[in-house]
Amino acid sequence: MEPLWVFVGALLAATAVHVAGQQEGFLSIDCGLDAKFNGRRDTYTDIAYVSDDPYVDGGMNHRVAAKFDVSSRSENRRTLRSFPSGIRNCYTLPTESGGKYLVRMEFFYGDYDGKTSPSFEVHLGSNYWDTFRNSDFWWSEAIFVAWGSWVPVCLVNTGGGTPFVSTVELRPLLPSLYPQVTVDESISAFARKNLGADTIYRFPDDPYDRFWEWEVSSLWANLSTKKTIQREDSFAVPIPVLQTAVAPVNNGTVLHVGTWNTYKSTFEFKFFLHFSDIQNTQLRQFDIYLNDYEWYKKYSPPYLTADYVYSTGWYKATEGTYNITLAATNRSMLPPMVNAYEVFNRIPHDTPRTSPKDFDTMMAIKLEYGVKKNWMGDPCFPANYRWSGVNCSGVTANTTRIISLDLSDSNLTGVISDNFTLLTELRYLDLSGNSLNGPVPKSLCKRSAGSLIFRYQSDEDMCNKTTISPPLSKNRTAIISISIVVPMLVVAILVVACLIWRGRRKPKISTHDPPREPELQSAPESRKSNGDQLQNTENRRFTYKELEKFTDKFQRCIGKGGFGLVYYGRLEDNAEVAVKMRSESSSHGLDEFLAEVNS
Question: Where is the secretion signal located (predicted)?
């Protein structure tokens, strides 16, 4: 194979980029930007950038060296944040669970510390994403489906120097884009090239703000058109990218698209080739090869319509070298051509993660109390980066639950948050040694009586406080005594009812009376229990409305017998009475009720 001389348009150059307004849903973080500045807009894209203070704990702000701090350089590459402390430091970005996103981190060293550019790892959640390797400038981009309300992107110190970052950018994508991406498998952009062009395209030409770097070669002939091209939806390649292409010089029959060498032998790749023929004079047909493998046979790109060819499976070369070649078939009258390509490596979600519900809850607790500690990234994984004070359960379906949380002596102030109750698998919670006040959430108290060990204050049990009531009057004490000794009261009611019945000189009551008519039984006014006899009571009749008034609409039930419920009441002269009501559902008839009273 002839040597392939490739010249790549570096993003550091101030190349022409079209300008438009901010896209909805973009989060653009200028790392190292002082929090006192109320954001700023990028000179080239007009995208609004904000300080990184709300999204990260720890780190130090820096500006690049004076020789790099020039007006021709994008402002967001003049500041950065370094992380000299801690092994893992993370930015926590807000997402919608199930949404698809592009996240990008840019790194411009700019000799900010006068040393040498470091090397360190970048993680997406708890999974390895990429490695920064002693470069002056580099960017890394991943596409993922959010598994919760937050996604952490982390810099991990591997001993190669102090990690740093210049920008962090989050872009929402349509669900239809990159259908290969799922909640269990993300992809990282290894390369994305715009062929036949001399400028970089991003937002607004690409509404998702992907970087389409230009690439040229002495082995290529550039093709271009100004005609409109019909775009497809699976990858939504920008129209300007599809309006340029490359073919072999001198109408050759073989086009060497690219050659890549990977620094990590475990990488697995997918390749995406983007086509739109801009010549319609004769047949163009070619075979596509990935290394020596015939990937696609007899392909003909459609005229002025976007199309693509991609590898359905993940491909891993034995020696870590990859090249793509297009070879014209014998029938083809035109040489092979291609407009753009993307190369992605796989981000497997092999490392378990914390249950999204628990992660979201822990983030809410962190924000409510301003917890710092090492609360960054996934709370449980990787295990050696687990959050301080957190213990987790075993792994089920690649997720784990938080079962223990120790926040003792953590300078917490305010009330005990209801968010603690959302950690439904919690078995141990220690909030002692803080300045918390207010009531303990009822569900925490309820769970502390069962499986949850809850420590709040060492000198008192806040869930089982005894409420001391003021002393009661003698009359009030008598009433409570009556209500407590329900069986004795029922016996007294029956005796009094019998006396009333025998004292009556009325005709026999018809059994056709309404079944829920209350039968009044006067209860004697209580006396001290020293052997006094029950007081004789007046034989009176009461209307139903009077009974409602005496019993406060039958609010206080003091007993239940075979005929129904017994209610407490008080007459006009403060005499206490009990009203026994025969229930419609009672298995006894009215005659039986009267017979019981008359017996």
Answer: 1-21
The sign of the torsion formed by the CA atoms of 516, 522, 525, 529 equals negative
Q: How many CA atoms, within 13 angstroms, populate the side-chain half-sphere of residue 190? A: 22
Q: How far is CA 502 from CA 153, 194, 360, 588, 594, in A?
A: 89, 108, 73, 21, 11
- 586 lies in some domain: yes
Of 210, 301, 305, 194, the residue nearest 245 (C-alpha): 194
pTM attached to this predicted model:
0.72
Give 119's strand partners.
Answer: 133, 160
Query: DSSP character for 421?
Result: G
CA pair distance 340, 192, nearest whole angstrom: 8
Residue range 388-438, pLDDT digits in tens: 999 999 999 899 999 999 999 999 999 999 999 999 999 999 999 999 988
Phi-psi region of 132 (alpha: psi -120 to 50; beta: other; left: phi over 0): beta
> How far are the Cα atoms of 20, 176, 345, 552 from residue 474, in angstroms, in the given order?
83, 78, 84, 22
pLDDT at residue 382 in the model = 92
Query: What's the rounded Cα separation, in Å, for the pair 345 and 327?
Result: 25
C-alpha to C-alpha distances, 292 to 66, 89, 107, 257, nearest whole angstrom = 49, 42, 35, 14
Q: Which of 421, 455, 489 is the last residue of a domain?
A: 455
Number of domains in the chain: 2
User: Does residue 368 lie in a domain region?
Assistant: yes
Q: What are phi and psi of 289, to 5 degrees?
A: -120, 135
For residues 401 and 392, is the Cβ–Cβ distance under 8 A? yes
CA proximity to 588, closest of 547, 579, 502, 580 = 580
Residue 590 is predicted with a pLDDT of 56
The token duo for 515 is 């079944």
Count of other CB atoms within 10 angstroms of residue 182: 12
Tens-place pLDDT, residues 490-526 = 444 444 444 454 545 444 333 333 334 344 443 333 3
Query: In Å, what is the CA distance from 392 to each residue of 150, 151, 395, 400?
Result: 19, 19, 9, 6
Q: How far apart, in whole angstroms, are the C-alpha atoms of residue 256 and residue 335?
A: 12
Tokens of 194: 């715009």
Q: What is the DSSP string of 203-263?
A: TTTSTT---BEEEEETTEEEEE--S--BPPTTT---HHHHTEEEEEGGG-SEEEEEEEE-S
User: How far apart, in whole angstroms, are the C-alpha atoms of residue 244 and residue 196?
Assistant: 5
Flag whether 294 is in a domain: no
pLDDT confidence of residue 558? 62
Cα–Cα distance between 391 and 163 in angstroms, integer? 28
226 is in an annotated binding site: no
592 and 487 share one domain: yes
Please check whether residue 248 is in contact with residue 255, taking contact to mean a CB–CB distance below 8 angstroms.
yes
If one counts every other C-beta atom within 10 angstroms of the C-beta of residue 128, the result is: 18
58: CB partners within 8 A, 6+ apart: 83, 85, 86, 89, 372, 376
Q: State the virtual CA torsion across 403, 408, 412, 414 in degrees, nearest 10.
A: 80
**Containing structural domain, residue 566:** 480-598
Q: Supply the DSSP string of 71-100, one letter for each residue.
A: TTS-GGGTEEEE--SSSEEEEEEE--TT-E
For residues 491 and 560, membership in a common domain is answered with yes
Q: Which residues of the chain have pLDDT under 70?
A: 1-22, 72, 457-462, 464-541, 553, 555-565, 567, 582-599
Q: In CATH, what number is assigned to the domain containing residue 532?
A: 3.30.200
